[in-house]
């Protein structure tokens, strides 16, 4: 499995319309509805006084409704099937502080015409701007093989953690 850039946008728009806009843009929405056999796993979080829970689901709509109706429950839901070309995973991270992180994973490199590998960072930058526009994200970050944050405070720390990589990539790809 190749390494991936994870592109994240933090938004206060934890609502059905914004989530569906995101999903419709990056996936074939009608084909990702069936989630039979999957579950919502909320990890214990002492900071927010949340106990671990596991909720079986059969549709993506159930995931969305759960995330909207329990704004203090944090969990990540990954989708890796029926996605638009060049997208490897979609991530919906419902944060413990009532926000949502929208994520898109893409391969770090693509094979170009001459058979060589080309860094996909410029593509990641375009997706970052697109996530910001589609979801009204007010903070974004490109990371590398890194799980989404649990809340805004952690997201800020992760932005700092990945700041140097992003600066280096922008400098080398100019």
How would you explain this protein's 3D organization?
This protein is of the alpha+beta class and 174 residues long. The chain has one domain. Helix content is 33%, strand content 32%. The protein has 4 helices and 9 strands, in the order βαββαβββββαβα. The protein has helices at residues 16-26, 60-69, 121-135, 152-172; strands at 4-11, 34-42, 53-59, 75-79, 89-94, 100-107, 109-111, 117-119, 139-144. It has a 5-stranded antiparallel β-sheet with strand order 4-5-6-1-9. Strand 5 and strand 6 form a beta hairpin. The longest helix has 21 residues, at 152-172. The radius of gyration is 16 Å and the shape is globular. The protein starts with a strand and ends with a helix. The model has no long low-confidence stretch (mean pLDDT 95).
């Amino acid at each position: 499995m190749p390494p991936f850039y994870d592109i994240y946008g933090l938004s206060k728009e934890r609502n059905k319309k914004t989530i569906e806009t995101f999903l419709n843009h990056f996936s074939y929405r009608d084909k990702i509805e069936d989630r039979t056999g999957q579950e919502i796993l909320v990890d214990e979080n002492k900071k927010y006084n949340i106990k671990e829970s596991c909720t079986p689901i059969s549709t993506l709509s159930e995931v969305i409704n759960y995330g909207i109706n329990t704004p203090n429950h944090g969990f990540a839901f990954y989708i890796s099937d029926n996605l638009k070309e060049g997208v490897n995973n979609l991530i919906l991270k419902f944060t413990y502080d009532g926000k949502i992180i929208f994520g898109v994973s893409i391969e770090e490199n693509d094979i170009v015409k001459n058979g060589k590998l080309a860094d996909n960072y410029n593509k990641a930058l375009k997706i970052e701007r697109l996530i910001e526009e589609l979801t009204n994200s007010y903070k974004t970050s490109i990371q590398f093989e890194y799980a989404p944050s649990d809340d805004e405070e952690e997201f800020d720390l992760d932005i700092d953690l990945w700041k140097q990589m992003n600066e280096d990539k922008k400098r080398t790809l100019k």
